[in-house]
Amino acid sequence: MSRIDTRGESAAEVLISRLLARVGNLGGGLHEPLFAGNEREYVTECIETGYVSSVGSFVTRFEKELALYVGAQHAVAVVNGTSALHLALVAVGVKPGDEVIVPALSFVATASAVALAGATPHFVDVSSETWGIDSTELRAYVSSSLRRDDTRLINKESGRPVTAIVPMHTLGHPCDGEGIKAVAKEFGLAFVEDAAESLGSFAGGRHTGLAGNAGVFSFNGNKTITTGGGGAIVTNDAELAARLRHLSTTAKIPHRFEFDHDAVGYNYRMPNINAALGVAQLEQLPDLVERQRSLHRKYEEALGDITLGSLRSESPGTTSNYWLQAFLLASGLAPQRDDILKACLDAGIPVRPLWRPLNTLTPYLQSPSAPTPVAEDLYSRVVCLPSSASLVP
Amino acid sequence: MSRIDTRGESAAEVLISRLLARVGNLGGGLHEPLFAGNEREYVTECIETGYVSSVGSFVTRFEKELALYVGAQHAVAVVNGTSALHLALVAVGVKPGDEVIVPALSFVATASAVALAGATPHFVDVSSETWGIDSTELRAYVSSSLRRDDTRLINKESGRPVTAIVPMHTLGHPCDGEGIKAVAKEFGLAFVEDAAESLGSFAGGRHTGLAGNAGVFSFNGNKTITTGGGGAIVTNDAELAARLRHLSTTAKIPHRFEFDHDAVGYNYRMPNINAALGVAQLEQLPDLVERQRSLHRKYEEALGDITLGSLRSESPGTTSNYWLQAFLLASGLAPQRDDILKACLDAGIPVRPLWRPLNTLTPYLQSPSAPTPVAEDLYSRVVCLPSSASLVP
Q1: pLDDT digits (tens, 9 = 90+) for B64-94
Q2: Do A83 and B267 touch (CB under 8 A)?
Q3: What is the CA radius of gyration of chain A?
Q4: Domain range list for chain B
Q5: Would you list the DSSP string of A94-155?
Q6: What is the pLDDT of residues A118-143, one digit of tens each?
Q7: A83 contacts B262? CB cut-off 8 A
Q8: % of chain A residues with pLDDT over 90
Q9: Which residues of A332-360 are buried (b: 16+ CB within 10 A; e: fewer)?
Q10: Average pLDDT of B197-208?
Q11: pTM (predicted TM-score)
Q12: Within the 60-89 window of chain A, which residues sit less than 8 Å (CB to CB) from chain B?
């Protein structure tokens, strides 16, 4: 690629002029949903039949079709991605007082779900290659910072049991699920995969969310497909699926008329009207992913030859859903990140940075953490670009 | 009223023949929603504009119109009634390890919400008049079973702090909110009103849900109005409303682009597509309540003169939404309750009993409890009758 002459323009000016000239009308939101299928028809059907709530055929249909798409044996639909993570953690056995390993670089829900389960997030760094947890570094960290106590892993410093790990596939790019699975197995950690951003992303030919005991998806309005608000947990473990399903309701024991409940239920079930939207969206999922991949090629054409930084492209061996397109500024431009974000927003281009590393947020300042230089570096340099599927005709 | 001659018929036969002959087509569900207004239009508007998720004008509109209807200054819409109760308990200051006083007779969510907040439900009995907590008995129980420790109330037996009370308005009939408020104030208890079943019910001219620090509604598919799944918290406390709103999202600090969060957020916000349904339903709420009240008159005509028991009519000084119509079997018929329920179900009449007293459920067997003879008696004798608004033309 040829080095371009920026003729005295600022980094922000170069980015803005390239985006406006070569990507097109960027004036909407950062990631808006696209409803081009049976959304109206299915939702209207809910209203006409009266089945809008947690009893209804669209919930079952959504779960079946989601499971089929990702290649899981079971899927349980719930009210959102946070509730999916929370419930998955509880169902795999995380208890109040435990610690759960999560990446410092993630949307806050990865840590909130741990806190909602009464546990403490224990942060680790991410890899500069995958932007997710790296299994080699994870093994080294776990070996040095945790100790085994009979069958459990204990944080040497806090003395608390470390019982699970929740890697996240950042912006839709799969991290090393298989490697992490091996570490989880070696050290006896439950493994919940935060695939909230990676519906439609594959690693080694397998869909994300299937490496661990359970995988979690989000169908928030800004995701690849949306149910308004929604989430799901997938698993190949029939017993875990039954427990998830039971706890996602009011944990009622089936009976013709008695109200008996054998556990504390979470009432996290997805309503039928949201599932109706989801079934319509799932029908378009292959097209929606293809649009994001086309959009990435458009960004490659627009920004591929500039020296200000590099586009985040899919890692070797993976197929990404490119949920959020991202541009990694060159190291020297980190101090200009905020000015670039502001200039783009002023120019009507909806951009955003990555999330502040979770170990710097007020509620998690006291949480244990490995050093996280890569998370901090990526946070200081990434500009997320407009990623609505409608940007591709 | 004249004593009828049952001519050797069983109690079940008398009830069934009366219901079929005088109430009409009872073949649907126990309490089905009625969509006769702008539901389709508003939901379609969400899909056409792309605003289906947590950002959208219907959420704000639903909150404003709900607050206006009940006469509250603030309303915060969330994913369901359980999440509303859970969030309200957290926001009024309930901490893990606390005890919270709840009625033994309620839908399980009243207790689950306490458990989800990491606290333990402490059960008390209900009144045979209101079917909810009685403030006189409550004062006596609190005075004898709890002790003051500086500013806190302590359960003498468990040693745990008792920090809140959650009365519930059973089947829509208001219990003694004002009396309970006085006890809560006297003993320094936070007061969350479980008005999940009582949207449209008033006591002393004031809507239920406004006596305490916060009141909670449910918009599940079987409620007076529905949003598919949904709930809301109302309050007149501006500071509490702000905290509820903040915690119901991801507790993000407003910023043009940074992702910073100053607390553990619950991600309980109601999606716009569900709120759209809610706005359409709220427009019909006065009519829906009037239908339930007419249905009650129809049941009075059908069952008012029989000696098998009595219909639950509104308590003096209250106006009930008659969410679920209920028939209280005469004491001698308690042993026949199950047979009556089965016979009605076999005849295609959707009935159900009250909930098993919560202090008898597996997850709460170890929870503290006052003696609860009234809850047990009502549970043994109440038959809830078909209550769909569509039963009235």
Answers
A1: 999 999 999 999 999 999 999 999 999 999 9
A2: yes
A3: 21
A4: 11-32+285-391, 39-283
A5: --TT-EEEEESSS-THHHHHHHHTT-EEEEE---TTTSS--HHHHHHHHHHHEEEETTEEEE
A6: 999 999 999 999 999 999 999 999 99
A7: no
A8: 92
A9: ebeebbeebbebbeebebbbbbbbbbbbb
A10: 97
A11: 0.96
A12: 79-83
Instruction: Name the H helices within chain A.
Output: 11-22, 39-49, 57-70, 81-91, 109-116, 135-145, 177-187, 238-248, 272-283, 285-303, 337-346, 373-381
Helix (H, G, I), strand (E, B) or coil at A272: helix
Residues 103-142 of B with CB under 8 A from A: 107-109, 112, 115-116, 118
- Name the residue of chain A whose CA is nearest to B29's CA: A50
Interface contact A37, partner B, CB < 8 A: no
Q: Which residue of A has its CA nearest to B269?
A: A229
Interface residue A269 vs chain B (CB under 8 A): yes
Cα dihedral sign for B362, B386, A50, B219?
A: negative
pLDDT tens per residue, range B251-278: 999 999 999 999 999 999 999 999 999 9
Q: Which ipTM was obtained for this model?
A: 0.95
Report how far residue A185's alpha carbon sits from residue A121's, in angstroms, rounded to the nearest whole number. Answer: 19
- Token output for A179: 């490697």
Which of A264, A345, A365 to probe the B interface (max B CBs under 10 A)? A264
- Interface contact B52-A44, CB threshold 8 A: no
Give Cα A296 distance to the centre of its chain. Answer: 19
**Which chain A residues contact residue B288 at CB under 8 A?**
none
What CATH fold (topology level) applies to the domain B11-32+285-391?
Aspartate Aminotransferase, domain 1 (3.90.1150)
Q: Which DSSP symbol is given to B79? A: S
| Residue B95, token pair as written in the block | 């901490």
Where is A321: in which H helix or E strand? none
What DSSP state is assigned to residue A322? -
User: Which of the residues A41, A53, A80, A223 would you substitute to probe the B interface, choosing the one with the greatest number of B C-beta atoms within 10 Å?
Assistant: A53
Considering Cα of A21, then A26, then A31, then A32, what sign does the dihedral take?
Answer: negative
Domain A11-33+285-391: homologous superfamily in CATH: Aspartate Aminotransferase, domain 1 (3.90.1150.10)
Contact A236/B at CB under 8 A: no
Partner A, chain B 282-341, Cβ-Cβ below 8 Å:
341
What pLDDT score was predicted for residue B6? 55
* Residue B275 C-alpha from the chain's centroid: 19
Range A185-194 average pLDDT = 97
Q: How far apart are CA B249 and CA A293, in angstroms?
A: 31
- Contact yes or no for B96 and A115 at CB 8 A: no
Pairing assessment for the beta strands A352-353 and A382-384 based on DSSP bridges: antiparallel
Q: Give the model's pLDDT for residue B23.
A: 86
Do the Cβ atoms of B273 and A273 come within 8 Å?
yes
Which residues does chain A have within 8 Å of residue B253's beta carbon, measured at their own beta carbons? none
Output phi, psi for A312, to 5 deg: -80, 110
Q: Are B108 and A33 a contacting pair at CB < 8 A? A: no
Chain A hits for B44, CB-CB cut-off 8 Å, are 40, 43-44
Instruction: Give dist(CA A33, CA B55) in Å, integer.
Output: 12
Question: Which residues on A lie below 8 Å from B80 (Cβ)?
Answer: 79, 267
Q: How far apart are CA A272 and CA A124, in angstroms?
A: 38
Answer yes or no: are the C-beta atoms of A126 and A375 closer than 8 Å. Answer: yes
Residue B205 CB burial class (10 angstroms; 0-12, 13-18, ≥19): exposed
Q: How far apart are CA A314 and CA A297, in angstroms?
A: 11
Angle at A175 between CA A171 and CA A181, to 5 degrees: 140
The chain-wide mean pLDDT, for chain B, equals 95
Q: In the CATH scheme, what is the code of domain A39-283?
A: 3.40.640.10
pLDDT above 50 (res A258): yes
